[in-house]
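Ticket reopened. Same input as before:
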Amino acid sequence: MNAPVANKLVLRRSYFEASARARVAAVLDAGSFREFLPPEASEPSPHLAVLDIPGAFDDGVIVGSATLGGRPVLVIAQEGQFMGGAVGEIHGAKIVGLLRRAVQEKPAAVIFMADSGGVRLHEANAGLIAISEIMRAVLDTRAAGVPVIALVGGSCGAFGGMGIVSRLCSAIVMSEEGRLALSGPEVIETVAGVEEFDSKDRALVWRVTGGKHRYLTGDCAELVEDDAASFRDGAIALLAGWQEPVPASSTLRAEQARLTERRQRFAGLRDGLDVWQALGVAEPRQIPLMDRDSLVALKKGLPA
Amino acid sequence: MSLQHILDGLFPAGHDVSVHGQLVAGCAQTALGTVAVLGTTDAAAIGHDIALGLAGRVLDVVDQHPGRPIVFLVDTKGQALSRAEELLCLNGSLAHLARCVDLARRQGHVSLALVTGEAVSGGFLSFGLMADKTYALADAQVRVMDLKAMARVTKIPHERLQELAVESPTFAPGAENYLRMGAIEAIWDVPSAALLEAALAGQQAAGPAADERMARGVERGGRHLAAATAAAVVSA
Amino acid sequence: MEKLEFRFPAQPATPAAGAALCGVVGSGNLEILIRPGDEADTCVVSVKTSARGFGRIWEAVIAEFAARHAAGGTRIAINDMGATPAVVSLRLGQALGEYTGGVQ
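Engineering reply: fixed in the latest deploy. New output:
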């Protein structure tokens, strides 16, 4: 009875620490990935060269096709270790191209492994425009009936424009270590002061932006362990029987009501602990210590 | 330029627009009939309240006035910067607003955004850049970050950035740069009813709007790589 | 950024793949891309590095690599963000291993 447990420990690979290429290899069906514009057929960004910065051949994002649980998918994987996964002109255009391809090809899903601080400041305008193009392309893809599943568990999380993009996706699979927000804590601290947001207080940062908090408040659909296999299983489970909704006023009205009600209910709260308490969690201080399965069980038991 | 001045310039035939804090909402008369007017003023920081306020009003237009064109007035210094806003997933509320603007397009509403003051990052992404077409007044300030702050963050000397910005529209602030890169359709010297009505009429004639900003960037010589890269991924 | 070019004689490599990539252009790290070159007994290396003034160290590390491995007939492109010589050697070995399918 001990052997499977031991195996699991040996096989566990941190998604947080893995490179984008390692994530692609581990999340999708083994050997199924085919890269579009692979490094050997690409040139690093000339915008970085002008600024005297070595680029990367893939400009920090990998796009291609693969299968996931035997079903055809298109894949995007951002490399958080390269310039914080930030979106520049080529990086963004690869993502837009992949999503446009999905509209034509209609795969079972697009798997979007986000790991990005948002706009690449070195190409600020190109990056901002690219994110806007990604936003529209994600919604075009979904309107074509193709779900876009965001996986958020990398070292850079999903911030800035990529935080918006992630929330435009059909669903988000997130690990406790993943972070999802708009402005980074450092930015808020710089502008509004350390009393507003102490970015060095890692526990606080996770209580505000981390996977467990986003899961409890319904901003991500699935919470998984920090393990490539768990992200894989989470994405497969989400896609089983997924029916991408047709864009409709009624759907957005429901979301409007949910967000408005939540805004009123949690007005003035500034810490995940307070939100969890308001959600009906008896011992909010235990949340950061809980394992994934216990937290999922706890959420099921919360009042609706 | 005051909001009143802008509204009078764009809608000489009449407008009924009110300001709720920094949220602008109402309708106005044009040669094409009544249009919805929505947006922000006084360089609003976009938080949940403004995002949800705008989103709800876009849905009202979609539900109550099928086909009515929407004019967005953009004046935002970006997203609200606070822990409380982030705690409730501000990126989610901005995404929701973007989805509502996108839904209006799919339901047959033409939309146009006019940057009247500032247009910065997240605030700009959530509605200004989601409209079918984006325009800017001549004195509009469009940016992600000013060059001095950019120099600090990227550790590239400010003088060097200024030098490069003369040639390249890729990173330096300015509506002109966004025009060259294809994200701003045109820059208007003044808020003009004639320009607005011509733009809306053109959009109505053209039918459902596809995202053509990459192609515009190539035509205007400000963004060469994006169009070819995206096309190469589609055909790979 | 500094751009460096090196050419070293080396025993011909036997490629198993058309190209191989190793590493990530992150802080203290680098990526190495190996493609087929024009001359079977030469290893041609071009380096773009964020750290200036380390040309002689690069030369020594790559010379040692070319001397110890059958790396001829290759064109190696490196994008570097300040990797140490030890990391450079390690990645060169990994990349060549992948390029030759484990046969060195």
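Strands of chain B lie at 15-20, 23-30, 33-40, 44-46, 70-79, 111-120, 133-137, 141-143, 186-188. Chain B touches chain A through 73 residues (CB under 8 Å). Please confirm and we'll close it.
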